[in-house]
UniProtKB/TrEMBL annotation:
Phylogenetic classification of the source organism: Eukaryota, Viridiplantae, Streptophyta, Embryophyta, Tracheophyta
Family annotation (PROSITE patterns): GH16_1, GH16_2
Name used for this protein in its record: Xyloglucan endotransglucosylase/hydrolase
Family according to the record: Belongs to the glycosyl hydrolase 16 family.
Highest taxon of the lineage: Eukaryota
Compartment(s) of residence: Secreted, Cell wall; Secreted, Extracellular space, Apoplast
Known glycosylation sites: N110
Gene name of this polypeptide: 11436621
GO MF assignments: hydrolase activity, hydrolyzing O-glycosyl compounds; xyloglucan:xyloglucosyl transferase activity
UniProt feature coiled coil, ranges: none
Domain called GH16: residue spans: 22-216
Gene3D superfamilies referenced in this protein's UniProt entry, alphabetically: 2.60.120.200
First-listed, main subcellular location of the protein, grouped into a coarse class: secreted
Species this chain originates from: Medicago truncatula
């Protein structure tokens, strides 16, 4: 596999250069498999850091070796700088099959100087359509920031630098589908979304600026693996407790300041009625209650 070969080359280089240090965290080597993109998917620095590239022939990606049922997944990501129009960097959990579950964090690139959109979505039993989109309060191409998915039987939380930006509670009791029984693998991919991603699909990838590279580091999973445990349903390893008053306040600020799209407010799209979980409370109210 290309990633392993490259890692080997890197090791040899490091042995030859005495100032080169290698961090042995090994997370990408031990926890992920190469998915697609050949040499474009690279594991570096002993497994702590990985990069994905996209050029006009292909994007690239990794997928976790384990399938998880509940857990908290942290990844530091540094996005494609400059003109990243049409490029989607994705960090997501997904099960397999026709009625799959999925929890998405996707970064929709933009032309130079214009803001990325962080899009989140949740699929349960094959049904998605629960997008929430945000601008970020920092430039995500300058430094690594930590993006987390925290999934337990009670709720799904998406976090940026440890601050919750989305809390979706399990309301299966009120007929709202929620992922609770299909193990999911974790994926990081870089792919061409120029048909829709940037300014409604009007801004295309500028291949003359490629190849495009996004960076991933310090992966951490505190998660349940069904093949190794018979009690994932009792999983309590994430931040299961409610939100602190402070992060509740911040979550409300984020909803009012940085949220740019909320499916629960899209009455044109859901002309025949908003999804069940939207009807009673706005996300603002939900955040206050959680
Ligand atoms: C790109 O920039 C435009 C103009 O500022 C903005 O409307 C849009 O939301 C940004 N993000 C994407 C992904 O199109």
């Amino acid at each position: 596999m290309a990633s392993y070969a490259n890692n080997y080359v890197f090791l040899l280089l490091c042995l030859g250069l005495s100032f080169c240090t290698i961090a042995f965290g090994g997370n990408f080597n031990t926890d992920f498999n190469y998915l697609f993109g050949d040499f474009r998917a690279n594991i570096q620095t002993g497994g702590n850091v990985a990069s994905l590239q996209m050029d006009k022939y292909s994007g690239s990606g990794f997928g976790s070796k384990n399938a998880y049922l509940f857990g908290r997944f942290d990844m530091q990501i540094k996005l494609v700088p400059g003109n990243s129009a049409g490029i989607v960097t994705a960090y997501y959990l997904s099960s397999e099959g026709d009625h799959h579950d999925e929890i998405d964090i996707e970064f929709l690139g933009n032309v130079t100087g214009q803001p990325y959109i962080l899009q989140t979505n949740i699929y349960a039993n094959g049904v998605g359509g629960r997008e929430m989109q945000y601008y970020l309060w920092f430039d995500p191409t300058q430094n690594f920031h930590t993006y987390s998915i925290d999934w337990n039987p009670q709720r799904i939380m998406i976090l940026v630098d440890n601050q919750p930006i989305r809390v979706s509670r399990n309301k299966q009791g009120s007929g709202v589908p929620f992922p609770t029984n299909q193990p999911m693998r974790l994926y990081t991919t870089l792919w061409n979304g120029e048909a829709w991603a940037t300014q409604g699909g009007t801004m295309k990838v500028d291949w003359s600026k490629g190849p495009f590279t996004a960076w991933f580091s310090n992966f951490n999973a505190n998660a349940c693996v069904p093949s190794q445990s018979n009690n994932c349903v009792g999983f309590n390893g994430g931040t299961n407790r409610g939100l602190s008053i402070d992060s509740r306040k911040k979550l409300n600020q984020i909803y009012s300041k940085w949220l740019v799209y909320d499916y629960c407010h899209d009455v044109r799209r859901y002309a025949n009625g908003l999804p069940n979980e939207c009807r009673r409370k706005s996300p603002r109210r939900m955040a206050l209650e959680d």
